[in-house]
Amino acid sequence: MKKISSIIVIPLLLVLFLSCKRDSEKEEKEVSTKNPVAENYNISILLDLSDRISLKKNPNPTMEYYQRDLGYIKSISEAFTKHLKSKKIRQIDDKMQLFFNPEPLNAEINSISKNLRITIDKNNASKDFLNSISLNYATQTLKIYESAIKDNNYIGSDIWSFFDNKVKDQCIENGYRNILILLTDGYMFYDGTTIKEGNLTTYITPEFIRKNNLNTKDWQNKLQDQKFGFIKAGDDLSNLEVLVLGINPIKNNPYEEKVIKAYWSKWFTEMKIKHFEIKTADLPSNMEKIIKDFILKK
Fold this sequence. Notes:
Number of strands: 9
Distance between the termini: 65 Å
Shape: globular
Number of domains: 2
Strand order of the largest sheet: 3-2-1-4-8-9
Order of helices and strands: HEHEHEHHEEEHHEEHEH
Strand content: 5-15%
Structural class: alpha/beta
Largest sheet: 6 strands, mixed
């Protein structure tokens, strides 16, 4: 009789165990879906402090370009703060930093930029600290632009070298969602980095576009057939997302903006950057949603 009971009970217990296990796994899956593991953000901002921000060379009566940059930075810092506030304190492990390349000669600007390298985790994520991020970025970046404009010594921006030498080490970390935001007019040129390999270059300027007859309606065929573009500056940047803000083509060539965006898009694609957007300069109020949607993935 005991033997018969064992034969009946053991399979029954096995069925109950497997049923409970399935219910438990289903419950865990539902909890995971409702409360996914929060991503850690590593946001980098690269400022182009070239003469594109000069009030004399590139004035704009609607809103100066440096003021637009400041508006974009405000939206970036607000999105970062919103992301932090969406997480539980113990989940917070996020970073935001600001770069130039090359570093400005002005010591004050370099000092300010170092203060804008923020690391936030469960040990310092107080409510006051989170609430201070946007205001701190707004006031400190204003000082940077005002100082650069006052100096009137625009040494340019070496964006190509930044991608070639610094992006992997300074902007990409394992376990993070790595976002690089570039504030630039879309042209790329630096005296110390002018490399040419056939029709591939480390630069693009209005003069270059005009000289190579990329200012006609046939620009796209020419770009493809004659292999124009930027020289690749990295083999695998697949763990990086890039948002370019402030593209500002000259007004006398209707194809200029398309050529600039094609150059950048080709470059990013060749470096295996899967998620990128390239946006033309606009008023900060018009760009706010675009910036926040990109960062918060809406």
